[in-house]
Amino acid sequence: MSNTAHSLSAGTRENRHYSVLVVGGGQAGLSISYYLKQAGVDHLVVEKNTLTHTWRNQRWDAFCLVTPNWQCALPGYPYRGDDPHGFMKKDEIIAYLDGFIAMVDAPVIERTQVKRVKRQDDGTFAVATSQGDYTADQVVVASGGYHTPIVPRMAERLPAQVVQLQSSEYRNPQALPDGAVLVVGSGQSGAQIAEDLHLAGRKVVLAVGEAPRCARFYRGRDVVDWLADMKYYDMPVEKHPLREGVRDNTNHYVTGRDGGRDIDLRKFAAEGMELYGRLDDLRDGRLHFAPNLTANLDDADDTYNRINASIDGFIEKNGIDAPPGGVYEPLWQPPHERTTLELAGSGITSIIWCIGFTPDFSWIDAPVFNGRGYPAHTRGITPVEGLYFIGLPWLHTWGSGRFSGIARDADYVTQAILESLRERTPSCDTVAA
């Protein structure tokens, strides 16, 4: 149990009803608690594992932020270090979160799984947990959207001697058996894990997906700094060209490692990394890949150049003095599309699945989900009165699931909670703890 949280004992607590019950003790749930405490609202944060568990236990050893430190802006707790344009490493991120946990001092019960949430006839919510039952006037779901790792059924047919890990289980190259490593997926995790292995001198086979990429630095500044000035991070989802479809987009791959740099898969290929297209199947001892490596690399580069071109336009429009720009030219081209690889002769002894997660909100009994299990909401407010979500990708803006935008979302959801509580108790300005 976290020694910096206001931890509570489920077995001895008499109070089983709260004005607000928050499910999830990551940065989203803690941000809600910060604002609820400021407003004097009694509440409880229920965490399945321990506070900020994912950051501590589902990141590899060399993990670092891919956005600059200045974007770490949790409510009441902005980054205060001496390297705002650097990228915190794993231990620094944990230290930052520990400071936030101590400041918030949330009323929390850890190692407690919420098994069911259901709105009752009287408008309150019944909340069943592994530590007993609760009721609440309102519920905030802050458990994120990355719950169930995606591993294809073909994994069941792989030889038992091939070690299989999901990206959240990977720690470092030394923890894997000797031999080549197949990394499946080239989003942020896949590209960075492939780089981690490559830099360690491991033979890497990378199944490249459709993830886009972006530059780390362009025309004298971090691309994130340019996009911030261009107000991209303030764009609400309803004004994005893809509208809600942007929530399904794969994140651009780039890294903050060693002070930040591009991730160029073509450069890795020129240095010996084996690139293939999307992994489709395993049949007769052979891995089968889609013939789309060239297209995937070209599409990623097109996005890279398109973002840079938008920065060029911003610089020109505003008369900004900046170093000259340019267009990325491919360093390497696939000589041909390779669509099969004999597993036994490849030297592959381990596979890391980096193809994402699916949400699992099956424990919420409420008519707010679409056919893909994603909740309908407007800035986290659902059609079911008293039920809210926070911390989801593009809940409102690009930063909604990140350190940079969670404060704005948490404040907005908290104001909706307070308004609802005022309607329930019109004679009171707030609900005292």
From TrEMBL:
> What's the protein here called?
MSMEG_0569 family flavin-dependent oxidoreductase
User: Has UniProt tagged this entry with the keyword Oxidoreductase?
Assistant: yes
The organism of origin for this protein: Paraburkholderia kirstenboschensis
Keywords assigned by UniProt, alphabetized:
Oxidoreductase
- Which taxonomic lineage is given here? Bacteria, Pseudomonadati, Pseudomonadota, Betaproteobacteria, Burkholderiales
- UniProt entry tagged with the keyword Oxidoreductase: yes
Q: Which InterPro entries match?
A: Auxin_biosynth/cation_transpt, CHP04046_FMN-dependent, FAD/NAD-bd_sf
